[in-house]
Amino acid sequence: MELPVGITTLHFSRKSVYLLVLAVILIGAGGYSYVQQGQAVDDAVAVQATVDSAQVERIDSRRSIDYSGSRRKPTASAVG
Fold first, then answer.
1. 10 neighbors 20 (Cβ within 8 angstroms)
2. What parts of the sequence cross the membrane (predicted)?
3. How do strand 2-5 and strand 8-11 relate by DSSP bridges?
């Protein structure tokens, strides 16, 4: 694909045209999302809430590897 620009001509491959179209689509989608989120923030309403109760549960068991060696028994063998 050739595109005349002023006194020169730009030469584009099919791959570069596809990438350019994809980039324009992604930029457009990002701009649309940005505008939508901005409108959602502008339309936000204030809410008053009260926390009635809160609890923290402690779990004493660990979910990690046991390096103490209590579960494995190493063995040695003599060579020779």
1. no
2. 17-35
3. antiparallel
Helix (H, G, I), strand (E, B), or coil: what is residue 2? strand
CB 14 within 8 A of CB 1: yes
User: pTM higher than 0.85 for the full model?
Assistant: no
Rounded Cα distance, 38 and 21, in Å: 26
Q: What would the pLDDT profile of 3-24 be if each residue is shown by its tens digit?
A: 888 888 888 888 999 999 999 9
Instruction: Return the structure tokens found at 27.
Output: 């930029």
Residue 77 falls within a domain, yes or no? no
Q: For the chain, give me the number of helices (H) and strands (E)?
A: 1, 2
